[in-house]
Amino acid sequence: MIWLELALVVFVLASAIFVALSRDIVGAIVTFAAFGLGVSVIWILLAAPDVALVEAAVGAGVITVLLLITVVKTSGRSTSDDSGGLTGKLHPLNVPALFILGTLAVPLGYVILSMPEIGDPAAAAVSETYPFSDTGDRTPYGFYVQETLEDTGFPNAVVSVLVVYRGLDTLGELIVAFSAAVSVLVVLKRGDLL
Q1: Which of 35, 104, 129, 185 is 20 to 30 A from 74 via CA?
Q2: pLDDT tens, residue by residue, 137-191
């Protein structure tokens, strides 16, 4: 299983690098769609099918279609002159940006590698109390599972978190989704639906 995960990470990184460096607009858009599908498969492996579904639908589907429509309605297929082989089809590397990326990737990689395994019963996110605490303090998981019904009146912990504890965040997500839908209609010039 570790080989599949490593292969997916390499695929996603290679896709991201190609999208960032490619001069072929359509090729970059198609590679971006593949990038989104790769990320959605990673979310599946991380046991987050809801996030994977959104990533596949929005990241690989809707965004790709919007980018392709934008290319068709604006400049054309590509900005490259199709000369010079592979080096003529890629942008040159931005060394300062690469340095900043590497500087951020090192601590991020350390944090990812130091996290507990997926499904570890001693992980703070899924245990009722902190595993290394002498006081028996409850984790957010323990609080939400034990106190949700009394605190919010919702028997479902997911609904209570989305509606009560993260209500403003959920409202913000709805505003973003509405704005995206209106933007799609504007790009497609469907004023009759506005």
Answers
A1: 35
A2: 666 666 667 777 778 887 777 777 777 878 888 788 888 888 888 887 777 775 5
Fill in the amino acid letter for 70: T
Domains of the chain: 1-79 (1.20.120.1200), 122-194 (no CATH)
Query: 118 Cβ partners below 8 Å, 6+ apart?
Result: 46, 47
CA distance 82 to 88: 7
Q: Environment class of residue 99 by beta-carbon count within 10 Å: exposed (0-12), middle (13-18) or buried (19+)?
A: exposed
Burial class of residue 37 in the structure, from the number of CB atoms within 10 Å of its CB (0-12 exposed, 13-18 middle, 19+ buried): buried
Q: Is 0.85 surpassed by the pTM of this model? A: no
- Give me the phi and psi of 138, to 5 degrees please: -85, 145
What φ, ψ does residue 153 adopt, rounded to 5°?
90, -5
- Angle formed at CA 134 by CA 131 and CA 138, multiple of 5 degrees: 55
For residue 36, count CB atoms less than 10 angstroms from its CB and return exposed for 0-12, middle for 13-18, buried for 19 or more.
buried
Give the Cα-Cα-Cα angle 80, 71, 86 (nearest 5 degrees): 25
What is residue 92's three-state secondary structure? coil
